[in-house]
Please model this.
Amino acid sequence: MTLGVGVGPVGLSPATVWHVIAGQVTGHPDRTVAGIIVWQIRLPRVLLAALVGAALTTAGAVVQVLVRNALADPYLLGVSSGASVGATAVLLLGTFASLGVWAISAGSIVGAMVAMAAVFTVSRSGRGLAPTQLILCGVVLSALFESVTSFLIFRGNPQATQSVLFWLLGSFGLASWDQLPIPAAALAAAMIYLLAQARALNALAMGAGPAASLGVDVRRLRRNLFLVTSLMAGVAVAVSGVIGFVGLVVPHIVRLMVGSDHRRVLPTGVLFGASFMVLGDLLARTIVAPQEMPIGVITAFIGAPTLIVLIRRRPYLYGATQ
Amino acid sequence: MSLRIDRLSVDIAGRRIVTDISLAAGDRQFTALLGPNGSGKSTILKTVYRVHKPAAGRVLLDGADLLALPARDAARRVAVVAQETVSEFDFTVREMVMIGRTPHKRAFDGDTEADHAAAEQAIERSGCAHLAQRSFNTLSGGEKQLVLIARALAQGADHLILDEPTNHLDIRHQVQILELIAGLGVTILAALHDLSLAALFCQQAYLLSEGRVILGGAPASVLTPQAILRAYGADVLVIDHPDTGTPHLIPRRTRPGSQAPRHRPDIHGRRPDIPDIPDTSIPASPKEP
Model:
């Protein structure tokens, strides 16, 4: 975190960073250039990256249990791009205008829910969800949603290439303090619910039948997990655009580290997802400095090969239907 | 400790799969559900453990409506061992067994000494202590079944439902699994595929066909050539098991002329003692007991 705040076009030492933060907290704001860079630009950006990383990781871990497929992730299932349609629709068409600052998040969450419902409906075969179909439908719908997002943006402003990049590939470039409360509150609420349900998540990972036999109300749990995934993906997209693969890569690494028990996976995932995203954002803004790379480019560079390795190593995941 | 199913009907996707079924699994008895694929065995069991909702009828646990109980309370009385082969997520055997404690825990409860003791005891009783550190996904089919039984034992229920627990297992593991569950001292309702094997272990059997019970009772009275022909459309011989006297089924070939002449001396010159083939030419009436 300190590293994330310190490194940038203007290099700042960890000591300076902590000095500024301490100054703000104790009521003696630092008015130097360094102080403004840290407090107004870098710190909110790093915190936002951390929140989004944690939210996307949580969404990924949850949706993987929901569909019993370790390859599921809000990006691959088209949930993130659905959220971006919702967010851009709000921005450009003024839907939900009455909700004020909450509008983009609300639009984004609704978009995520619609996308998720669409993917589930389309990929539902005779009995249950076939993993292959689910991912394929997700990828196809995600392409469709991305087109809709781009269309909406260009319709609003034909010169808006920058804006399209933001929504399709993600960025923390617009981070500010007032963007933090919504994702922070959503993440906290989701984590409280999920930790309370962690045993039920373990049971559901065994399958719907075994979970029912272990006393889990499967219907209600699934519905709530559906909502949690949409909420997490929605708030993340609303503030940072579509950032792919984080929900796939981080839960996978975390499961390798701590096993599959969700009482450990979820909290570890939050920490790991946050760190992953802060470092990713650090790369995004230093690799081609003074230009900035969209964060989605970085995560795809890490995520796509990971997905391929996963598919190669466990072929039964793709062929198998249960 | 008894489980009774009372005039149960179940519809799936608008089709009636199970029609007006009544059966009872007696106290600490091993009751087998038999019948061809698609005869409704799994559907009945899944209705008992709440995957399907009944269209009509009740499931009674010691006379009380099981499906009206909260899911957690029901899971503390009735545990299930079903077919679970691939878990997407890599749990260790000990974690799998601990998941059996789920119905005993509330939100945010940690694992207590009692939970660990229950899991250890379950692992010990089901004979999978040597597997405890292994990853569930790396186990063989038979080992997985042992672990799932351990999970059910950790659940602490006094009723055990099993859905074809010996499927895809070799004969040693089939016998091992059935010996294990028959010796648990709990009330057992198990759907089984292998009729002879079922007869070897169960005290009660119900034969299903097309979603109805066509016969119920002691295995010897249920597994007759006539009943098998009616339920499965298969022509079999039924002999007594030399050790136990339980019915043992011998399949017969269906192509005319494929049967060896009877009483032909075998390669050692002995004449095998083949019992007479019972008359199986009863009229095939598929409906109603």
